[in-house]
Amino acid sequence: MHVESLIGMLIIGALAGWLSGKIMQGRGFGVIGNIIVGIVGAFLAGAIFPALGFAVGGGVLASVIHATIGAVILLFVIGLIRKAR
Fold it and tell me: Are 80 and 27 in contact (CB under 8 A)?
C-alpha cells in the first residue's frame, strides 16, 4: 500500500465518519473516533455490499458514499449494543 492511498483512505474515512455522525444525530465519537468509524464502516460495507449484489460505482464520491453507508450501519449497531447494556 502506498502512502498516497493510505492518506486517501484516511481522508475518505474521516469524511465518511463525519457524515455518518451528522446523519445519526450525535452518535459520533469525535474526530479520531469518526475516522476510525469511517474506515471500519468502509471495510464493513466493502465486505457486505458485494455479497448482497449492491454496487455504488467507482471514484472518490462513490467511495465516500460507500464508506458513509457502512459507517452509518456501524453506528446503528453500536447504538443497539449500548442500549442493550
Answer: no
pTM above 0.85, yes or no: no
DSSP string, 11-55: HHHHHHHHHHHHHTTS---HHHHHHHHHHHHHHHHHHHHHHHT--
Whose cell is 502512502? That residue is 3
Which residue ranges make up each domain of the chain?
Answer: 3-84
Whole-number mean pLDDT of the chain? 82
Beta strands in 1-85 (DSSP E): none
For residue 40, give every residue at least 6 positions away whose Cβ sits within 8 Å of its Cβ, in sequence order, or none.
Answer: 70, 71, 74
